[in-house]
Amino acid sequence: MSDLTQAWTGLIAACLLYAAACDISVRLIPNRLSAAVIALALPFRLLDHDLLPGIAVTLLMFTVLTGAWLLRLIGGGDVKFWTACSLLIPPSAAAQGLFSLRVILCGGGVALAYLVLRLLVRSTLPIAALPRSRRWIARVWRAEQWRARRNGSIPYGVAIALSAWVTFVPSVPH
């Protein structure tokens, strides 16, 4: 893998990681992150000579996910982020199907983790025992406790980001 490809892939990884962190912390995936993923995906689609099919698949994905959003099955930020990540993946039915299956399965894992969290919602972290540099863990835990008590949303962006990364990396030209 060339240095430029490695750097570009690193930028994509940073965007995916930041999107997951934003979704965990504030349940919002900034539009600029979805736009950045699209911008970073375009060169890979150009290099693979499948930009137009990639855009067509991405638009199809947006249409399907918008339907899920209208049925209140998925959040609007997740629709935009999943759509953007679909451009990272080669536009073949197998690759896109595998990506979507991974998102669904990983999303189920995140949902299961949140069901367990709701059972543990009354537990507390010993904040004083954490070093100052790790106090953010306690803040995130308190926020998650608050969300769990109110049956808040699940950070599906984590599943999307992880699935995009696992599906994208093997397709990166070496």
UniProtKB/TrEMBL annotation:
Keyword Transmembrane helix belongs to the record: yes
One Gene Ontology MF term: aspartic-type endopeptidase activity
Pfam families according to UniProt: Peptidase_A24
GO CC, any one term: membrane
Residue ranges crossing the lipid bilayer per the database entry: 51-74, 152-172
Signal peptide (residue range): none
Prepilin type IV endopeptidase peptidase domain mapped to chain residues: 11-99
InterPro entries in the cross-refs: Prepilin_IV_endopep_pep
Keywords from the named record: Membrane, Transmembrane, Transmembrane helix
Protein name in UniProt: Prepilin peptidase CpaA
Origin species: Acidiphilium rubrum
